[in-house]
Design a protein that fits this description.
The chain is an alpha/beta fold. The protein has eleven helices and eleven strands. It binds pantoate. The site of pantoate (PAF) has 10 residues, from strand 2 and helix 7.
């Protein structure tokens, strides 16, 4: 694997690769890699002649400075995992490399995607995600982009970004299923910050989503969402939301006619660690 810290060097290298007909698959990450990330690399490996991964903890997407400071960093084991997964190129840039002009302003028209659920509870988060993903896409110029379903709302935001930037015909977006630990906890870099007691409680998120899946029926959904919130509270979480939405439009639903495809989504704190998860219901 070749490691690039300078954007200009990577740019030059990828130009030569494109000229010889290489198809580029790209997996953007913030490091602290786990098997979920590696499954994205493996998927990219199957379908592209060149696999590029980036590790960049993007300050502009953290609405909580403490969360940014405490974001786990495990670069040596990340590199070992990527080499093992046969990744070709790693971009590991500094903040100055990614944002050479710190005063540059951007705004992405995300509509309601930015005002509900993650958008509501993490103001500015998706603008930061768009800013960095847009920048990374311009640097890497991939044919295929791989992201995980665990960040369901982020998947829709990135799909929207590709449309907004006129990139959707050049870059195919691939969404890979969430990988889970044996007890159901969705794999996440933030899991590394859970202490032993929190780690025992954490699968309660998945149990709550499954409870909603088991009990969903056409009609009013309000009581079921409240039941999900109470289930999390009883288990020791500080839940922010349990929401049921149309799986494709992402609009939250209070009534279900039994025909729409649904997704249930939640965010909840254990101590100061914020976990999110989601499940397709039908
Ligand atoms: O999902 C992530 O790890 C990040 O939001 C991403 C897409 C790498 C952008 O920083």
């Amino acid at each position: 694997m070749i490691l690039f810290k300078k954007v200009a060097d990577l740019h030059k290298y990828l130009d030569t690769q494109r000229e010889i007909g290489m198809e580029i698959g790209f997996v953007p990450t913030m490091g602290a890699l786990h098997q979920g990330h590696i499954s994205l690399i493996e998927e990219a490996r199957k379908h592209n002649s060149l696999v590029v991964c980036s590790i960049f903890v993007n300050p502009s997407q953290f609405n909580d400075p403490a969360d940014y400071r405490k974001y786990p960093s495990t670069i040596d084991s990340d590199i070992a995992l990527l080499e093992n997964a046969d990744c070709d190129v790693l971009l590991y840039p500094s903040v100055e490399e990614v944002y050479p002009d710190p005063d540059e302003k951007s705004h992405y028209e995300l509509g309601y995607l930015e005002t509900i659920m993650e958008g509501k509870f993490r103001p500015g988060h998706f603008q930061g995600v768009c800013k960095v993903v847009h920048r990374l896409l311009k640097i890497v110029g991939p044919d295929n982009l791989y992201i995980g379903q665990k960040d369901y709302q982020q998947c829709l935001v990135i799909k929207r970004l590709l449309e907004l930037m006129g990139m959707k015909d050049q870059i195919s977006l691939h969404i890979a299923p969430t990988l889970r630990e044996k007890d159901g906890l969705a794999m996440s870099s933030r899991n590394a910050r859970l202490d032993a007691q929190q780690r025992q409680i954490a699968p309660g998120i998945y149990q709550t989503l499954n409870l909603v899946r088991k009990e969903i029926k056409p009609g009013n959904l309000q009581l079921l969402k409240e039941k999900g919130m109470n289930h999390l509270l009883e288990k020791g979480f500080r839940p922010e939301y349990v929401e049921i939405a149309d799986a494709s439009t992402f609009l939250p639903l209070n009534e279900w006619d039994g025909s729409q495809k649904l997704v249930v989504l939640t965010a909840a704190f254990l101590g100061e660690i914020r976990l999110i998860d989601n499940l397709l219901l039908n």
